[in-house]
Amino acid sequence: MENEFQSSKPIYLQIADRVYYRLIRSELSPGDKLPSVREMAVQMKVNPNTIQRTYSEMERLEIVETRRGQGTFIAERSDLKAELKDRLTKDVFKRFIQEMAELGLSPEEMIDGIKQYAEEANDES
Amino acid sequence: MENEFQSSKPIYLQIADRVYYRLIRSELSPGDKLPSVREMAVQMKVNPNTIQRTYSEMERLEIVETRRGQGTFIAERSDLKAELKDRLTKDVFKRFIQEMAELGLSPEEMIDGIKQYAEEANDES
Amino acid sequence: MENEFQSSKPIYLQIADRVYYRLIRSELSPGDKLPSVREMAVQMKVNPNTIQRTYSEMERLEIVETRRGQGTFIAERSDLKAELKDRLTKDVFKRFIQEMAELGLSPEEMIDGIKQYAEEANDES
Amino acid sequence: MENEFQSSKPIYLQIADRVYYRLIRSELSPGDKLPSVREMAVQMKVNPNTIQRTYSEMERLEIVETRRGQGTFIAERSDLKAELKDRLTKDVFKRFIQEMAELGLSPEEMIDGIKQYAEEANDES
DNA sequence: GTGGTCTAGACCACG
DNA sequence: GTGGTCTAGACCACC
Description:
Four copies of one chain form a homotetramer.
Chain A: H1 11-24, H2 37-44, H3 48-60, E1 64-67, E2 71-74, H4 80-102, H5 107-124
Antiparallel strand pairs in A: 1-2
Chain B binds a DNA duplex (15 and 15 nucleotides) through helix 3.
């Protein structure tokens, strides 16, 4: 009865993120068909309108294209995966570095912190 | 007539963030009096209720304490600054590492990326 | 046109108290949907913002959780009712005993007083 | 620099309570002179206006009387102490029993609870 | 439809 | 003058 989405980030964007990650991890590839809006809604335990938004957003970013009567497909561009990964990692890096700078941490301290926290994450897993 | 706040994050939290950063940069210290709700509202070009919410939130987190009829003050705990910095940096690290892991980057790649982007930031400045 | 709230305790907390009591009396159970902010506001003859505050407070205490676009629900924790009752009774006991101690009454006198007043209450009913 | 008042109860009433308790414990007696407003303010680390309110409140309740040019004195009524104690204990009992009834506790459970919590309080002391 | 946020303006208790 | 509460009404993102 419950879905698993949290944080303040809109659910429809969280779902888009999942698609991006599956692409980058090569669990999805250009040309693959995505589940229908309704089916995805059932899988995600979410309102179909929410999936509709997800798909619209991804189409806007040209990550996905819809073919009338056939469904929604990962865009057929050879560089899609690399481009997507680039864009996402770049965003994450920039935000991270900027926030850390505001907190007064030097690049060296950032690197130390990553070593430390990455270890902790390993311990937990 | 216009204020300078952006985006999705609520204004009242953005203002709280500013207080946190001023604390960490030692522009504010435990015991210091914050501007009154009304005065801060003028400074920030925001409705007094918005500031009220900022102050309530910070009080909930025990970063600030209000003395009735006197105003709102930075909490008088010697470890406040360190604790706050810790909490904020921890949050940023965790989010960064988790997002990067989802993008399939290893800690080594994260570190390389930081070196690279930190250089770029230097070049710009 | 008039609502029925009194005294010094903020209305938004008085309304929260009512929810707590309904939970303890099992008129509400984990997972139940509370009325929407607007509907509750009508019922209580109060401004929607006041209810909003009530719900925020209850969410802060993890007694309630909100699902975006769906409404506000009693938290789904099996021990919620017992925990809540415990917390509330504990608070009342502690305050009572402390006040009585300050008035110089021994536990025995407290017990005698309860017997006496409980009888009176019976007589009235 | 800090005073020691807490809870949501107004400071001026908390200070009045202290006077009541000192009376009941016979640390104060009818006819005794209270400290001047200013002196009490210094003792309590509080604004003189706050003490002024305390004294006004106590005068309204006829627990205290002010003699112009001389100061403020505990009212000279032989029954003052007993009456005060009665009134305060009655209030505390009634509120306690009512709150407990709302929580669904029987008088027997109240008595059990008092025994239990009174013990705990002993352990701590 | 839902809750979340923000503005505007008011009143009050408190110090 | 201070913060705390409440009302009224608006807009928005999300489902």
